[in-house]
UniProtKB/TrEMBL annotation:
Highest taxon above the source species: Eukaryota
Keyword Transferase: no
Gene3D superfamilies with a match to the protein in the record: Leucine-rich Repeat Variant
Start-end of each HEAT repeat: 28-76, 77-103
Stored InterPro entries: ARM-like, ARM-type_fold, HEAT, HEAT_type_2, PP2A/SF3B1-like_HEAT, PP2A_Regulatory_Subunit_A
Designated name of the protein: Phosphatase PP2A regulatory subunit A/Splicing factor 3B subunit 1-like HEAT repeat domain-containing protein
Organism: Vitis vinifera
Keywords of this entry: Repeat
SUPFAM superfamilies: ARM repeat
Family: Belongs to the phosphatase 2A regulatory subunit A family.
Ranges of residues in domain Phosphatase PP2A regulatory subunit A/Splicing factor 3B subunit 1-like HEAT repeat: 72-103
Protein's UniProt keywords contain Repeat: yes
Native organism taxonomy: Eukaryota, Viridiplantae, Streptophyta, Embryophyta, Tracheophyta
């Protein structure tokens, strides 16, 4: 399951760009929120941990911003981005901070 979530997080922006605008706001934002709040720390399969999901979301967040537009970005993605910047894992914070200019 973590590998599926990591793949979904890494391709969510590309997927959102192909979906109709009405679905972007409702469905895509719901998926995004689920990925950013994923808490499977008890699940450790090989090298896949829940921080990997948040790491991939941090790396791909700007693509999602471009796909959903300015209003959903302000209302939904900015708070999620701030949570990524304040996350517990250094890798997630570094990934999020590295994308600050694109965001």
């Amino acid at each position: 399951m973590p590998m599926v979530k990591r793949s979904a997080a890494s391709n969510l922006g590309k997927f959102a760009a192909t979906v109709e605008a009405a679905h972007s706001k409702a469905d895509i934002m719901s998926i995004f929120e689920d990925l950013t709040q994923d808490d499977q720390d008890s699940v450790r399969l090989l090298a896949d941990k829940s921080w990997c999901v948040r790491y991939m979301v941090a790396n791909q967040l700007y693509e999602l911003c471009e796909a959903v537009g300015p209003e959903p970005t302000r209302s939904d993605l900015v708070p999620a981005y701030v949570r990524l910047l304040h996350g517990n894992e250094a890798e997630v914070r570094i990934a999020a901070a590295g994308k600050v200019t694109k965001f």
